[in-house]
């Protein structure tokens, strides 16, 4: 076979780029970068190596976005001597990219509520590639709740390429809550009423080198003009490794159809339109609730094809090509075809927060999380006809952390009739003599193992009598930090059931303990 002419330029192999973005509330603006494209000699690969995907996660005021990769075609070159060697064709490489958002602590407002509609990446030719499209059902986020937290927003498959810009589209409305929670200001990003597009330029986004894009809504750099009511927002790209090193946890909201159920492993798999395939693992004492009938189900009752909604802590896969795992304490089974947000005329409202008042079946909740922009700091939730996923009405006390789902009682979103109410950390089936405790705060006094230790508390910093308490953490979930942070002297907050001086913990928070693992780049 004749060889190609030496005068012919070498074949141009397809180029690939791996991109991952993360957001970190503490990072400042970094020097501008451009995306690097590397040529890679392609060879036939299994199908699973040719599927690029991206995942997006969000955290307080920081947003991480992913870039897309452009495909280069290999062109045959004609040589001398009347014969040519045809260059082999190759499939373009692609990678999965995960997107997270995060934020730093706000200094002037206790809560900053925004809606995220879309995140796109722009290549050198000006073509936009979608990383997240929530235009039909915008994602409401309290950016202040994302301090040192990474929220997983999406996973997409991108062809290799160079991306110089990321665009983040926000709804125009902004809700600002004062530090003491007494006032809520309805602000906006611009005076036109149009969506606000924030653009990050001169990026160096390569999905082959990093599997996550972290976007940081840097609240410390937000500004508010009281005269015009205009908020000026800032979003920055955060180094993924640095961001994950400071995260106390990663979280995600999963909504989609069940594709597999594993009763032996206590898990099921969900196909989420934004996050891709997600494995949901049931926490100890997890509850599955059918919102339409209010019946409690077992995992064996959960059928393939069921429409579910879950929110929980994320454990990333080894690579971005591997599914993430979300640990859930409550699984909501919704009507077939439901978006989880109800309809325009009868929206399904869901949220979470801290109880500030209890009056019979009416519970006032200071919101920290919701699928709507709250018009005030608190909502009143009527639990008279609600199914309690954990705990019972008599367990609800001021200071308790709760979650709810239901419908508005009248106009607006300040009064909600709950169909499902969850007392976080309580038992789904309390035993005799057990009493729910919304938060024992103290210092670790001694450690027998990561599931058995003692805590010393004082009357000044907790809601139980001063003394030493034995903690059974065999079924507990670390809400922040991990078991490696459990050392003598560490300050902890525990939720669970108390019997005498023994606390059976269901939730553990360890102060000042960051550092979460993230996925390596994976091919689509």
From TrEMBL:
- Residue limits of the DUF5666 domain? 255-319, 442-509
Q: Where is this region: Disordered?
A: 1-25
Which InterPro entries does this one have?
DUF4382, DUF5666
DUF4382 domain sequence ranges: 96-221
For this entry, the protein name equals DUF4382 domain-containing protein
Instruction: Give the species this sequence originates from.
Output: Roseateles puraquae
Q: What is the lineage of its organism?
A: Bacteria, Pseudomonadati, Pseudomonadota, Betaproteobacteria, Burkholderiales
């Amino acid at each position: 076979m004749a060889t190609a002419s030496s005068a012919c330029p070498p074949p141009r192999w397809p180029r690939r780029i791996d991109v991952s973005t993360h957001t970190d509330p503490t990072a400042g603006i970094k020097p501008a970068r451009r995306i690097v494209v590397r040529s890679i000699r392609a060879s036939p690969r299994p199908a699973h190596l040719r599927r690029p995907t991206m995942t997006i996660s969000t955290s307080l005021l920081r947003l991480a976005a992913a870039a897309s990769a452009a495909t280069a075609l290999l062109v045959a070159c004609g040589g001398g001597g009347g014969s040519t060697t045809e260059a082999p064709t190759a499939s373009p490489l692609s990678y999965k990219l995960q997107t997270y958002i995060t934020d730093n602590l706000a200094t002037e407002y206790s809560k900053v509520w925004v809606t995220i509609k879309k995140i796109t990446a722009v290549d050198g030719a000006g073509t936009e590639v979608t990383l997240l499209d929530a235009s039909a059902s915008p994602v409401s986020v309290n950016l202040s709740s994302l301090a040192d937290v990474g929220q997983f927003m999406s996973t997409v498959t991108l062809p290799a390429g160079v991306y110089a810009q990321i665009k983040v589209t926000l709804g125009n409305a902004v809700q600002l809550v004062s530090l003491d929670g007494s006032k809520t200001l309805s602000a906006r990003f611009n005076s036109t009423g149009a969506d606000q597009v924030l653009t990050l330029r001169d990026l160096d986004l390569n999905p082959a080198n990093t599997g996550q894009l972290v976007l940081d809504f840097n609240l410390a750099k937000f500004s508010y003009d009281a005269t015009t009511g205009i908020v000026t927002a800032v979003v920055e790209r955060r180094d993924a490794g640095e961001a994950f090193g400071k995260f106390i946890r990663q979280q995600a909201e999963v909504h989609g159809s069940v594709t597999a159920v594993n009763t032996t492993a206590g898990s099921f798999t969900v196909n989420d339109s934004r996050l891709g395939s997600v494995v949901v693992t049931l926490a100890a004492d997890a509850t599955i609730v059918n919102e339409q009938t209010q019946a409690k189900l077992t995992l064996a009752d959960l059928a393939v094809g069921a429409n579910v909604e879950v929110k929980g802590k994320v454990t990333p896969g080894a690579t971005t090509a591997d599914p993430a795992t979300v640990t859930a304490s409550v699984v909501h089974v919704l009507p077939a075809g439901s978006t989880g947000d109800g309809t325009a005329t009868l929206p399904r409202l869901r949220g979470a927060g801290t109880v500030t008042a209890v009056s019979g079946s009416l519970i006032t909740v200071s919101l920290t999380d919701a699928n709507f922009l709250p018009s005030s700091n608190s909502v009143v939730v009527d639990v008279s006809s609600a199914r309690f996923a954990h705990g019972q009405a008599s367990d609800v006390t001021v200071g308790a952390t709760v979650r709810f789902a239901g419908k508005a009682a009248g106009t607006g979103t300040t009064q909600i009739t709950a169909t499902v109410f969850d007392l976080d950390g309580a038992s789904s089936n309390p035993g005799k003599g057990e009493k729910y405790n919304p938060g024992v705060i103290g210092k670790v006094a001694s450690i027998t193992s990561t599931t058995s230790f003692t805590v010393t508390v004082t009357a000044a910093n907790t809601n139980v009598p001063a003394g030493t308490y034995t903690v059974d953490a065999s079924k507990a979930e670390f809400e922040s930090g991990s078991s490696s942070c459990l050392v003598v002297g560490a300050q902890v907050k525990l939720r669970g059931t108390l019997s005498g001086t023994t606390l059976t913990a269901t939730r553990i928070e360890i102060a000042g303990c960051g550092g979460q693992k993230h996925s390596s780049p994976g091919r689509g």
